[in-house]
Design a protein that fits this description.
It is a single chain. The chain has 4 helices and 4 strands; from the N terminus they run αββαβααβ. The protein has 120 residues and is of the alpha+beta class. It has one domain. The radius of gyration is 18 Å and the shape is globular. The relative contact order is 0.22.
């Protein structure tokens, strides 16, 4: 039994390591924090982000960690799926957006495509 259990865990470990990276479209709402670089009268901002990960949860974790390192204060993250999911849902993806998504995948990175400050 121990050999089968070890084999099972090795197989599941191998399956995890073979999971392909995908690019997820995320919308992140950030609040104010000292040194965040947002305009003086802004109350926060919305960020459109393309983040790579083996699943959406990993992409969200990496995004939040990087935004915190950049002195931003993430409040909420909404996922809009992978490029294929978005296309299947009828979204039109323009060439500039596609290029950023491909770059995020190639570099295994988090790319802020747009930042829109919020004002009261």
């Amino acid at each position: 039994m121990t050999e089968n259990e070890d084999t099972g865990s090795d197989e599941s470990g191998a399956a995890k390591s073979k999971r392909p990276q995908q690019v997820f479209t995320l919308l992140v709402e950030v609040g104010r924090k000292s040194g965040d670089g947002l305009p003086d009268k802004a109350t926060g901002a919305g960020l459109v982000i393309y983040a790579s990960g083996v699943d959406e949860a990993e992409a969200v974790r990496e995004t939040v960690a990087i935004l915190k390192q950049a002195d931003l204060a993430p409040l909420d993250v909404s996922g809009y799926g992978t490029m294929d999911e978005r296309k299947a849902g009828g979204d039109e993806i323009d060439p500039d957006e596609l290029a950023l998504m491909e770059r995020a995948l190639k570099e295994n990175s988090v790319i802020v495509a747009q930042m829109t400050p919020f004002f009261d």
